[in-house]
Amino acid sequence: MWIFCPDVDVVHADLVARGAPMTGRLADTPLGLRRFTVTDLAGHQLNFFHYL
């Protein structure tokens, strides 16, 4: 699932502080996105992003 957020850095910092299991590092992509991936308790991958 892809989830847009206005500031992905703030969401990333909050989830890291809460101990969420990061499965994809925070990075800028060639497609013009800043994104990271986290796995929820059911094993689903959630991709948080914003446009650069």
Report on the architecture of this protein:
This protein is an alpha+beta fold and 52 residues long. It is 19% helix and 46% strand. The protein has a four-stranded mixed sheet, covered by helices on one side. It is globular and about 30 Å long. The chain starts with a strand and ends with a strand. The model has no long low-confidence stretch (mean pLDDT 96).
Short description:
The two termini are 19 Å apart.
Kindly state the percentage of residues in helix: 10-25%
Order of helices and strands: EHEEE
User: What portion of residues belong to β-strands?
Assistant: over 45%
Distance between the termini: 19 Å
Treating each run of at least 4 consecutive H or I residues as one helix, how many helices?
A: 1
Assembly type: single chain
Average pLDDT: 96
Low-pLDDT parts are: none
Structural class: alpha+beta
**Sheet with the most strands, sense and barrel status:** 4 strands, mixed
Using only CA atoms, what is the Rg?
10 Å
Shape: globular
Number of strands: 4
Can you list the strand order of the major beta sheet? 1-4-3-2
Task: Spell out the blueprint of helices and strands.
Layout: E1 2-4, H1 8-17, E2 22-28, E3 33-39, E4 45-51
Parallel strand pairs: 1-4
Antiparallel strand pairs: 2-3, 3-4
Protein traits:
52 residues; alpha+beta; 1 helix; 4 strands; 19% helix; globular
